[in-house]
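Suppose you are handed only these lines of text.
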Amino acid sequence: MRKLLIAGNWKMNKGIKETEKFLKELKDEIEEEIFEKIDIAVFPPFTSLYVASILLKNSKIYLGAQNVFYEKEGAYTGEISPKMLKEIGIKYVIVGHSERRKIIGENDEMIAKKLKAAIEEEIVPILCVGETIEEREKNIHKKIVEKQIQEGLKFLKEEDEFIIAYEPVWAIGTGKTATPEIAGEMQGFIRERIKEIFGKEKGEKTRILYGGSINSKNIEELISHPEIDGGLVGGASLKKEEFLSIIKNSIRSLK
Ligand code: PGA
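From them, the structure of the protein bound to 2-phosphoglycolic acid can be written out as follows.
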């Protein structure tokens, strides 16, 4: 019922030339029938988005941005609006990644505004949530994630399309992938919270991705779990062969 999504978050990697090479090859090598089974999206850095949008124009690979601001236009030095992203055909935008929460200092209020602003331009936001290792050890991880969900979604309505990515901070870029049981338990918990806020049907419909040290070896087991509807892949999405293997292996979990 929920279509899988494999999303490659390139972070601050790949300029224009590398983006062109990667996407040309990816487009050539990806088999057409794959798109019937799963959605695929790439998230290049801002300076590579325009060239990526031209390359992906007639492709079924979706294009996403890694961040967005919540105002439409104006005196906001250094920011990019949802309207600007819309103009180049952006489908998804990552909001509230833990690197932005921690390094840039984004808070739940800003994140909530960003989600709403993206939706107003018909861009689907991917809200990232997840606990640190200290929070898990103190057994407050569910409380933390519940707050991120409640605050992040507070301006949205039932009919608004959004995606959640559960990304435990201790699993990002560390090689310490959450087990399918740990991720699945948290994602089931997140789904219950969405049901509480927007109703049962919305909770059942909403895609919840897992993110944190995904690779071609662990993807199949992870998304075999019924609560895991795809992956937000960082490091492993930068190598074309590895990204293609992740896509192929995730389809195997569909049986
Ligand atoms: P990683 O990053 O796959 O390199 O752990 C995931 C993410 O931050 O989205």
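What can we learn from it? Residues 9, 167, 172-173, 211-214, 232-236 surround 2-phosphoglycolic acid (CB under 6 Å). The CA atoms of residues 127 and 164 lie 5 Å apart.
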